[in-house]
Design goal:
Two copies of one chain form a homodimer. The first copy, chain A, contains eight helices and two strands. With 143 residues, the first copy, chain A, is mostly helical. In chain A, a hairpin with a 5-residue loop joins strand 1 and strand 2. The longest helix of chain A is centred in the C-terminal third of the chain and has 19 residues. Chain A starts with a helix and ends in an 8-residue tail after the last helix. In chain A, 37% of the residues are buried. The interface between A and B is large, with 41 and 40 residues. Chain A binds a DNA duplex (30 and 30 nucleotides) through helix 3. Chains A, B: This is Transcriptional regulator, BadM/Rrf2 family. Chains A, B: One of its GO terms (molecular function) is DNA-binding transcription factor activity.
Amino acid sequence: MISNSSKYAIKALLYLATHSSIDNKIMVKDIAKPINVPKAYIAKLLQQLVRENLISSARGPKGGFYLDEDNLNKTVINIISVIDGEDNLNSCMLSLNECNENKPCPLHYVLSASRNKIIKTLNNKTINELALEVKLGKAFLPL
Amino acid sequence: MISNSSKYAIKALLYLATHSSIDNKIMVKDIAKPINVPKAYIAKLLQQLVRENLISSARGPKGGFYLDEDNLNKTVINIISVIDGEDNLNSCMLSLNECNENKPCPLHYVLSASRNKIIKTLNNKTINELALEVKLGKAFLPL
DNA sequence: TATATAATATGATAAAAATCATATTTAAGA
DNA sequence: TCTTAAATATGATTTTTATCATATTATATA
């Protein structure tokens, strides 16, 4: 439903949102440790996220990863879409392709409301907003 | 979060709930086709489900799979637990082990309510109740 | 402009999940 | 009680996901 890779990517963005800035770029190795993901693995994911404009980077000395204004306004769904592809979250819980709101499978039927709410939330909440919850002391890292 | 195998198992139980009885047992091959799962794969899962008392079976001629009264009262969570193990659904969306209601990660924080509702539903709804939705015309197979 | 530092591209390996294949056991019915 | 029809047990294979390794490219700064 949501892959390990997506989870790692979300963690990385949350970490960058709360710790980096254009003047304070963070290297792979300094991201991997605190978010608890293998360095070589997160490195690959970060590269992919850069290509898809979800995060920013600079090479060479003083280089590293950070989030610019645009990056901060990405949503969780944006991340999952890039890493896992579009459809995973849109499909019903049993991955039935003939299942939809009009003709729902039994599980879909009983879960529809909650499920829609989750998707809506993931669609609306930006990384920036999530990071704000942390600054307000409502939510917590470590990741 | 919820494996393919679990999805297949849920589909199988829903199919049996709506089509089988102790007097009308259904063979592997007649389950595999309508629920759209490879025969050899579902066979293995069905065997596991029998061992864990989630479904019933009989060998030999006139044999096959069916649900007894006890089986019909199993919940979706029961199925997922048997196939995927206990923890998968209880963990937070990012699989953080230090994340909980009191000290939630940002994602957990914004999804908590919907997520709890889903888990509660999966915990309470029995296979029998789900099948009833179908009989009442509120929900639909095919699977 | 040489050096060192950092991301990038590419691909190999390992682990897990999904799928397939088959010999064995059980039981119904002729 | 023999034959046949079914599940069961076991394990092999394939595919996908996760992980690791490294040579290449870009850039700050001495």
